[in-house]
Amino acid sequence: MAVNLAEITGAKAAQEAKKQEAPKIANGLDKDAFMKLFLEQLKNQDPTAPMETDKIITQTAQLTQVEMQEENKKTMKEVAEAMKSTKETNEALKGFQGDLKKTLEKMDKGVEESINSNAYLAQVSALNAVGMIGKIVETDVNGVQISGQGEVNFALYFDQPINEKAGRPSIQIFDKDKRLVKTIPIEGKEGQSGYVAFRWNGLDDKGERVGDGTYDIRAEYNLDSNTNQYHQARVGRGEVESVVFDKGRPMIKMGAMILPMDSAIEFYDKEKGDARDMTLTQLQNEAAKVNDSMMAQAQKPLESEMAGKNIPLSGEAKLDDESKSKQDDESGMKFASDGENMKQAQNDEQPLKDPIS
User: Fold this and answer.
1) Contact 316, 354 (CB under 8 A)
2) How far apart are CA 174 and CA 215, in angstroms?
3) What is the reported pLDDT for 273?
């Protein structure tokens, strides 16, 4: 922004004041009033003794001198006011420069503290990142990028050694619409665990080249004969082998893949990772076993009480053996409801009160 020196020095203000004030002579009259008086004097002079010419010239010269003196006086006054304004401006500018200096010093101090704080936070982040080594990480990366006609090399993390005889272990590749485009049998990897390298030639199951884009890669291996479920592996999940730093930014190394720390979704121990392999069917089976145990414990006191009172089982209720056999054949873990497992005795018209096994 341009600086107006007339405003800073006060010259502009002095000029405005000069315009508002009409020039005055020493006796308080301006030059116009003096000229009127002079003309009146000439008009009313004695015709018999008129004013001499030299006196008229002298008075006119005096008027001019007085007027020039007044102008000089006003000019000096304006200069003094301008100098005073300049002095005040300089003092204000000096104060502003002092305040600016203090502000800049505070900013420098704040920047220095911010740098120190960022360095400390980076150290803390680095320590936390190093603590993730050896843990299993889940990231937001699910597959690989296909571009051009080349082959794709990738690695999958296997929590357990591969048993090629347990089911049909395979790698499944899906496109962006979750459609299965390629199935690759896992062969020649018997007993391998951790990060295992694979290669895909970029062809689908029909032998055609797939289009450019991102493809999700997952693996199924080690079929559990009890649950008929496979263990799972995918690209973007595995053990953190090390932490590397790129200009102070922590990066996690997972096999041949290096990802930024902010791509991680969750970290957990290997033991918890093994627990995650438990399928829904296994959880249901475990819950059913606990339920069986609790029901058995609850029925023992009831049977003892009924036996102590000599209440014949045939007089109250009996278990529907056919229904029980059917339920056991289906799941072996569920209990039939009272309406399905109990029936009334032929000669008893009272409603059932207690189911007895």
Assistant:
1) yes
2) 6
3) 55
Distance between CA atoms of residues 61 and 59, nearest Å: 5
Which residues make Cβ contacts (< 8 Å) with residue 284, sequence separation at least 6? 333
Contact 217, 234 (CB under 8 A): yes
Compute the average pLDDT of residues 111-121.
81
Separation between Cα atoms, residue 30 and residue 24, nearest integer Å: 4
Burial class (CB in 10 A: 0-12, 13-18, 19+), 231: buried
CA-angle at 185, arms to 183 and 190, nearest 5°: 150
Residue with tokens 């029901």: 295
Phi and psi at residue 331, to the nearest 5°:
-135, -30
Residue 267 to residue 139: CA distance in whole angstroms:
9
Is the CB of residue 83 less than 8 Å from the CB of residue 8?
no
CA 214/CA 209 separation, integer angstroms:
14
Could you read off the pLDDT of 231-283 as tens digits, one per residue?
999 999 999 999 888 877 888 899 888 998 888 998 888 876 555 554 445 55
* DSSP 8-state secondary structure symbol assigned to residue 261: G
Q: Give the whole-angstrom CA distance, residue 213 versus residue 234.
A: 18
- Which residue from 172, 179, 232 is spatially nearest to 198, judged by alpha carbons? 172
| Token output for 82 | 């301008």
Decide if 235 contacts 106 (C-beta within 8 A): no
